[in-house]
Specification:
The chain is mainly alpha-helical. Helix content is 79%, strand content 0%.
Length: 92
Amino acid sequence: MNDTPKHILQKQFEIIYAKPLKERIAGLFEMTELSRNIILNQLKIKNPEFSEIDLKIELFKKFYKFDFDDETLNKIADKMRQFLTREVIEKK
């Protein structure tokens, strides 16, 4: 994700690199999981009709909307839908 101003990123890096590696990695996983859960819960509230596949795709789009142009993002989302749908069918 590329939505944070450079001066804020610099300060974040200074704070993060002052910590031991083990703490940095643990914090990274914790923040990623927290943000993922917050966004996922928002999507569920706003779109109660969404399937689990829809939620996964929309979550991906939220996380990577600043990293890909719309066309590329939608192409990836379409491939994800195909893969996840096939995976669900094969499990049945």
